[in-house]
Write a structure and sequence with these properties.
Among the domains are: about 240 residues, Glycerol uptake facilitator protein (Up-down Bundle), CATH 1.20.1080; about 90 residues, GMP Synthetase, Chain A, domain 3 (2-Layer Sandwich). It is about 60% helix and about 10% strand. Strands 4-5-6-7 form a four-stranded mixed sheet, covered by helices on one side. Strand 2, helix 14 and strand 3 form a beta-alpha-beta unit. The N terminus and C terminus are likely disordered.
Length: about 500
């Protein structure tokens, strides 16, 4: 009995006993993954709040060198926008000190530092004023007045601008929180494009175009708000030391002011965020509608845009160059708007008859379309010419076997069949193409065929206009697989 019990204790584990062990391994695996992710992604342990606060405060003020660096960077960016050079604009953003007051606003709200908040707003106003005055003076003096694509891109913000600003703000404050400084903050200034909207706003003032002024200012405000909001979030998440007041009444007043400022900033930004999302979705539907429906053989669509007017629905403007688009086709386009969720929109078609009636952007678009069309036509012409040449070469090498065999049978009735082929011969490092002719005779033997082969070879040279012909002769036997052959080369 003791042996039996001993054997039972050493027997393999039952499935019921194995399940808890597997559950233990799975639990341990999840714990290890959590530890790994915590060690890899954790940022709280690397935070240096005091150093970060002092570093941000040091970059807030705009006076002396900072003002002149800002002026020079604004001038460089304005030139880059004016000549449509993205590289010049990026270079200007690398040296601009715009991020200081913006990070200061978010940081001071996060730690309840009322004095630093007022200082940040004051320097933000100085930065904005200096930038607008500088860019306006430049565009008043420059002889280049046309709005290039770099300027036009800063008129209306999109959802991507909002996302880039918020994510860039997160990256900026995390980089500022490190003891070892990197190039992340200048990179954030480039990614969020703080400077180009200021230059574009100055262009709007200099040229008297309110849509440029308000559109660019709108984009700059969105970028600034969401960078400050991201800074506030990280500061609170990392639990920076919050400033305490000795006077409780003053502390409540400060918290109230901070809450009001947060509502004033976050509230409009939320409304802006909603509007930008709605507009982006609407524009995507418009682009899909145009791609799938707007087409006319007699005219080229050179420009399309969505115009928003207060108190009215959006208008999809389509500018064509060429023949007039039939009214029935435009009506058909309007009838399909509901299918794309554009029931509150309308279509307006502009049909410019001459280049003089078009603006610079439309002319540029038309030139690009014409250039692309010419390149495509030229490429097709080259392909057609190449195929024609190849076809001619193939035709030159076509052999009229049936015709030649018929002609030879008239001269040589005993000829049974003819086979022709082009043969490439390699001889001492050089190649030569020659014609190979194989003749099959309906005779008992080859007696007397040698002289006829020489005559036939000369006939082939003259008839086919070739230099060399290799003539082979054999006797046709229906049951013979390896015919007796005799050859001659002319």
């Amino acid at each position: 009995m003791q042996n039996d019990s001993s054997q039972e204790s050493k027997s393999p584990k039952s499935p019921d006993n194995a399940a808890p062990e597997e559950h233990h391994y799975l639990t341990q695996a999840f714990i290890n993954i959590r530890i790994f992710l915590n060690q890899t992604l954790r940022i709280e342990g690397n935070a240096h709040p005091e150093e970060t606060i002092e570093s941000i405060k040091a970059d807030i003020d705009f006076k002396g060198y900072n003002v002149w660096i800002l002026i020079f960077s604004i001038l460089i960016a304005s030139i880059g926008l004016n000549v449509n050079s993205g590289a010049v604009v990026i270079g200007a953003m690398l040296i601009s000190p715009l991020m200081g007051p913006i990070l200061g606003v978010g940081m001071s709200m996060g730690i309840n530092d009322w004095a630093t908040l007022k200082r940040s707003f004051r320097n933000f106003a100085i930065m904005f004023t200096v930038s607008i005055i500088t860019s306006t003076l430049y565009f008043l003096l420059t002889p280049l007045e046309d709005a290039q694509s770099e300027l036009l891109a800063r008129i209306r913000p999109t959802l991507l601008d909002v996302l880039v600003a918020f994510i860039g703000g997160l990256a900026g404050i995390l980089a500022a929180n490190r003891r070892i400084k990197t190039n992340v903050v200048p990179g954030v200034a480039i990614a969020t494009a703080l400077m180009p909207p200021l230059c574009t706003a100055g262009y709007g003032i200099a040229t008297g175009q309110p849509d440029f002024l308000f559109g660019a200012f709108y984009l700059f405000l969105i970028n600034s708000i969401f960078i400050s909001l991201a800074t506030f979030v990280i500061v609170r998440f990392l639990r920076f030391p919050i400033k305490e007041f000795v006077d409780e009444l003053r502390a409540r007043r400060a918290r109230r002011y901070v809450a009001i400022i947060l509502i004033l900033i976050v509230g409009p930004s939320g409304f802006t965020f909603y509007n930008v999302i709605s507009e982006s979705i609407f524009n995507r539907r418009v682009n899909t509608f145009i791609t799938e429906n707007v087409y006319y053989d007699g005219a080229e669509l050179v420009k399309n845009e969505v115009v928003y007017k207060e108190g009215q629905g959006p208008v999809i403007t389509l500018s064509f160059f060429g023949e007039n688009v039939p009214a029935s086709l435009i009506k058909a386009w309007r009838s399909k708007l509901d299918d794309y969720g554009l029931d509150n929109a309308d279509i307006r078609v502009f049909q410019g008859g001459t280049v003089a009636q078009m603006n610079s952007e439309e002319v540029t678009k038309l030139v690009d379309v014409y250039t692309d069309s010419r390149k495509e036509i030229q490429s097709k012409d080259e392909t057609i010419a190449r195929l024609k040449l190849e076809l001619e070469r193939q035709r030159e090498h076509e052999l009229p076997v049936a015709q030649l065999c018929t002609e030879l049978q008239v001269m040589y009735p005993r000829l049974h069949s003819l086979s022709l082929a082009w043969m490439v011969e390699f001889n001492q490092g050089s190649t030569d193409t020659l014609l190979l002719a194989e003749l099959k005779w309906n005779v008992p033997d080859t007696t007397g065929l040698s002289s006829q082969l020489e005559t036939i070879g000369s006939w082939f040279v003259t008839r086919m206009k070739v230099d060399t012909v290799a003539v082979k002769s054999s006797i046709y036997r229906a049951q013979e697989k390896m015919p007796e052959s005799k050859g001659i080369k002319n």
